[in-house]
Write a structure and sequence with these properties.
Length: about 240
């Protein structure tokens, strides 16, 4: 994988297919999000001295208002974001949960990289993002990774337009129409579409379909990308 948070060579007109990581490259049913949410709640309670129910509420409020719980912690409580990352994301026992996914690897290997660049785009910190794709056995298939830099102030994350601009800059793409994006977050997908990206909302099988679609494309499984973007695959109809 290309160097983190740095442009992968000169800007080209080649389109970029951006993938979110958590609950996108592995299923929500793996329960990583639930485990993470529990650890965040415990962090809030321990570091802010809150009863559990208040910690849960504040966590949800910050997530809703800022897109990331950590932004609220840094903004309002002067929490060290890298210490938070070490105690929460990096402390997750992912090795027992996330395993190599041969089908996902086949799908990504079948992308024609002469026609499109593959790039990771996450609201997690770099250590978590790299750890997940390595456990999935796909870390060698992406040109680079745009992540939420917890060390910067203010913290910028999806769906803020500056985060999408950062991803374009780091992936070396100038035009919004050359950006293709897959994410499980309604807000992130809607934000990308508003900026002119071609966005795909992954709504995992078993989850309710939104009343109003977040974007032009909505899928239940990543394999459906073959149908939506056949121009990017060597064998579009391959199962």
């Amino acid at each position: 994988m290309g160097s983190q948070s740095e442009p992968n060579g000169p800007t080209t007109r080649k389109p970029v297919l951006f993938f979110d990581i958590d609950n996108c490259l592995y299923p929500r049913s793996a329960k990583v999000y639930d485990l993470m949410a529990d650890m965040i709640d415990k962090y809030f309670a321990a570091h802010l001295g809150l009863p559990e129910h208040e910690a849960v509420k504040l966590h949800r409020d910050y997530y809703r208002n800022y897109g990331l719980a950590i932004e609220g912690l840094v903004r309002h409580h002067q929490i060290d974001p890298l210490e938070y990352n070490a105690k929460v994301d990096d402390a997750l026992p992912l090795e027992g949960i996330i395993k190599p996914d041969p089908r996902l690897r086949r799908l990504l290997e079948d992308v024609d990289t002469a026609k499109v660049k593959l790039w990771l785009f996450t609201n997690a910190y770099v250590t978590h993002g790299r750890r997940v794709v390595k456990l999935l056995g796909i870390d060698d298939l992406f040109d680079g990774l745009t992540y939420c830099d917890y060390a910067q102030t203010p913290i910028i994350c999806k769906p803020h337009r500056d985060m999408f601009a950062k991803a374009m800059r780091e992936a070396g793409v100038e035009r919004a129409e050359d950006c293709y994006f897959v994410d499980d977050s309604y807000a992130n997908v809607a934000g990308a579409q508003q900026l002119g990206w071609t966005a795909v909302h992954l709504v995992e099988e078993g989850l309710p379909i939104p009343e109003t679609q977040a974007s032009q494309y909505q899928i239940r499984h990543l394999e459906q990308l073959r149908e939506i973007f056949p121009q990017f695959f060597k064998t579009p109809d391959r199962e």
